[in-house]
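Question (not urgent): is this output format expected?
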Amino acid sequence: MSRFEEFAALHVQGNPVMLYNVWDVGSALAVIAAARRSVGEAFFINARTDLFLKAKPEDHDDALVDQAIERGKAFAGAGANGFFVPRLGDLRLVERVVKAVPLPVNAIAYPGAPSKAEWASAGIARISHGPFPHKALMAQLTEAAKAAIG
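Got this back:
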């Protein structure tokens, strides 16, 4: 059995294998194929890169965007339906990703992020709010509880 066949055999419908840090075309192809076998063609696969989550905002530059574009194109070629680039907030860089990656590009709203209108103008297709509304609500609840307790 080849290494590919061994890898493919790990992917069983109803018991999907979760893989992280897919950074190359071969891995993207394998992950998307496994997902399709597990959930079928009618399922929206939103591929994600954490490049901008891991880097400080001041390090978000053209070189990092080049890496994201390479990954987005790999995911598109592998059959993904969308591309999620959380924490990329520089609209000039966002526009580069949107223009270069042939998938709808998704972003995450966070404190200090561009507005909905700015995201839309840059070409973002979907905005996720991630954990931020929950965190804000929990902070308010904590303050209310402290005030009630005295």
